[in-house]
Fold this protein.
Amino acid sequence: MTSDLPKVELHLHLEGAAPPAFVRGLAKEKSIDLSGIFAGDGSYSYSDFWNFLQVYEAATSVLETPEDYARLTRVVLAESAAAGVVYSETFLSPDFCGGRDVAAWGEYLAAIREAADEAERDDGIVLRGIVTCIRHFGPEKAKETAICAAETAGDWLVGFGIAGDETAGAPKDFAWAFDAAREAGLRLTAHAGEWGGPHSVRDALDALRVERIGHGVRAIEDLALVDRLAEDGVVLEVCPGSNVALGVYPDWASHPIERFRERGVTVTVSTDDPPFFHTTMTNEYDRLADAFGWDEAVFVDLARTSAGAAFSPRAVEVLEAALAERGRLT
Ligand code: ADE
Ligand code: ZN
């Protein structure tokens, strides 16, 4: 059963992991009308990637206080732990948490950390944070976001990244923010190669000097770039269920994850925004097993690779302890 396998997840948006029932509950408490973002069966409803971003931001509008984020963190970590995740890195957005005000951001972060500490005690799952700026909000807001990240960098807030509409602006517009984050000791990742072609991955590597790429799958269209990723040890945070749900690929069999692996690229597997894409880490594993015949040995190797690519050394400790405890040391 793949649900029992200890898993490491490196690419998860906290707001994007909010179950629709949780968002509906908060909307009701606050008398906010969000009926337009749900389908008849209660799931999130969107027509394409750009509409997905709008629905995501509408759902996020109910998260108004540090306490709302603490509640969200508990709900999300309970879901992740149920899927066997033992270590997770989540994207956090000062844009949504305090409007990029450093003091307010600190209060949201403290609430999220406290909730994560409770989940670690109760469910044995370890969480770490990556601040993300949002590309379509522009470079000036990204600078303020990077300052929030730099002020709170440490052994819990371990990384900095960029998400949002990849077709807006260019990576070089965000170089100041990434330089500030790097100087503060944060590790770096950038969404690229999801909606932009191989050039978007090259630009993110060259302009932002990131060590991980969120998605990056469109690099497969340029084998010289694939070889550069392999040689330089760039890690891809691959989210196959997200790519299939949003239509980057028509189905799992067409997804390039196996081709990246075969060519020596370091791939990891994550859910991105699980309820939006009707997925969980267990579902990702099961679909990968169906599509590519991945077995337990591949999944244990994948988890170890992911732990090694994590931005905190806690990932390796937690994973190895879980593998030993569950008798999975193949
Ligand atoms: N924000 C949340 N999910 C995202 C995705 N898949 N791509 C870009 N930005 C995002
Ligand atoms: Zn993402």
About this structure: Residues 7-18+64-325 form a domain with the TIM Barrel fold (CATH 3.20.20.140). The chain has a mean pLDDT of 97.
